[in-house]
Amino acid sequence: MAASAMRIGGVVAFADVGDVRLFFTDEGTEDPPILFVHGYSCDSHDWMWQLPHFTESHRVIAVDLRGHGRSGVPDKDFDARTLADDLAGLIGQLGCGPVVAVGHSLGGVVVSALAVEHPSLVQAVVSVDPGYLIPDEFQPMIEALLEGLEDDPVSTVQGLLGTSSYTPASPTYLKSWHMRRIAGVPPHVLRDTGVALFETGSLAYREVSEEYLQRRECPVLAIYAAPDRAALEATLLTQPHSEAIAWDGSGHWLHQERPDDFNRLVDSWIASLGTPSTT
Predict the structure, then answer these.
(1) What is the pLDDT of residue 256?
(2) What does the pLDDT read at residue 275?
(3) What are the residues facing 100 on neighbouring strands?
(4) How confident is the model at residue 276 (pLDDT cuts 50, 70, 90)?
(5) Whole-structure pTM value
(6) Which site in 18, 91, 128, 274 is 20 to 30 Å from 80, CA atoms measured?
(7) What is the spatial distance between Cα 179 and Cα 189, in angstroms, rounded to a whole number?
(8) Are 148 and 163 in contact (CB under 8 A)?
(9) 162-219: per-residue pLDDT in tens?
């Protein structure tokens, strides 16, 4: 594969990064650029509630992770660090770093890995109900999930997200959309991404992610549905302007259920960061 980005109409683009072709959109012009990263079994359409808004005042890149959406589907390498390396390659080709990296769920793990492994490319992280800091006592339940991924990835992921991601206030159309989208993800991508995220010793678990997250050298805004998880992340934030908040009563897709609140919060927080140093 040629290691170059290909633009189509100045808005929709593809980039060959290592062994995978990534689909992304690239709109707007103003700094700081924002990179939006979706979660497990999702794609960049997750950010449709955000893209028109932020494009008015920022350069906005929204990417499909490997194996998801319109990106290429390799046979292997779906762990968070590899996904972060893919994004580093994309940022390098576009010459748009450092970015404000916004990630939901698995995307929260990936943008945090991007900040740790490629700190010069990330000005700040916005982590939306991220898939890390999972209590170690959840491991037996996760092991049952991993067994299900081996047997029937689609039904297993639909069961996991369908029973734990919504509240009575969640719009029913969101759940229908999410469940249908899961059914369209290649089964080996569901299996291998889930295994990489939840296997013993992965970044998902508290005993690993506590130390790892403290290596982020940039400001972090963490937005959770659960107050106890927000309180835990708050103990790990060491950079000025960092904060962790909870929207109790919201479902897992906070940015879709409360888009106006989310957009205002992120707007205000990014504005508080000022201009990154170029030295």
Answers:
(1) 97
(2) 64
(3) 34, 124
(4) low
(5) 0.93
(6) 274
(7) 16
(8) no
(9) 988 999 989 999 999 999 999 999 999 999 999 999 887 788 888 889 999 999 999 9
What single letter denotes the amino acid at residue 26?
A: D
Please, are residues 109 and 102 in contact by the beta-carbon 8 Å criterion?
Answer: no
- Rounded Cα distance between 201 and 204, Å, is 8
Q: Which residues are CB-neighbours of 98 under 8 A, at least 6 positions away?
A: 32, 120, 121, 122, 123, 276
Helix axes 153-164, 172-183, angle to 10 degrees: 160
The answer to whether residues 252 and 162 touch, using CB atoms and an 8 Å cutoff, is no
Give the CA radius of gyration of the chain: 17
Question: How confident is the model at residue 114, as a pLDDT?
Answer: 98
Burial class for 138, CB neighbours closer than 10 Å (0-12, 13-18, 19+):
middle
Residue 125 phi/psi, 5-degree rounding, is: -125, 135
Alpha-carbon distance of 107 to 91, in angstroms, equals 16
Q: Using the predicted structure, report yes or no on whether residue 127 has a pLDDT greater than 80.
A: yes
Mean pLDDT of 63-88: 96
